[in-house]
Amino acid sequence: MIGPQEALVLDWRLELIRARVHRDHGNAHFLTTITRLRDQVPAEEITEYLSVSQSQVLRWAA
Fold first, then answer.
1. Which residues contact 35 (CB under 8 A, 6 or more apart)?
2. DSSP string, 4-54
3. What angle do CA 27, 37, 3 make, to 5 degrees?
4. What is the pLDDT of residues 13-51, one digit of tens each?
5. For 7-35, b where at least 16 C-beta lie within 10 A, e where not — what string?
6. Distance from C-alpha of 58 to C-alpha of 19, rounded to nearest angstrom
7. 41, 12 in Cβ contact below 8 A?
8. CB–CB of 19/30 below 8 Å?
9. pLDDT computed for residue 55 by the predictor
């Protein structure tokens, strides 16, 4: 069984996976997900998880 903190991490990672699939298909859902998660998850974790630069994440969130 996982605790609440682990569940939160799993939730945002799964959401990023879904959003990345949408991005690959040109869906704006990816951009709105990045914008929302940027306020909840440290940018370093998002950049590491997506294997992109922090400046790329900031462009997507703009």
1. 60, 61
2. HHHHHHHHHHHHHHHHHHHHHTT-THHHHHHHHHHTTS-HHHHHHHHT--H
3. 120
4. 888 888 777 766 567 778 888 888 888 888 889 999 888
5. eeeeebeeebeebeeebeeeeeebbebbe
6. 16
7. yes
8. yes
9. 92
Q: Position of tokens 């630069």? A: 53
Q: How many CB atoms lie within 10 A of CB 60?
A: 19
The model's pTM is: 0.57
Rounded to an integer, what distance in angstroms lies between the CA atom of residue 40 and that of residue 12? 9
Residue pLDDT, tens place only, 2-11: 566 665 566 8
Burial of 48 (0-12, 13-18, 19+ CB in 10 A): exposed
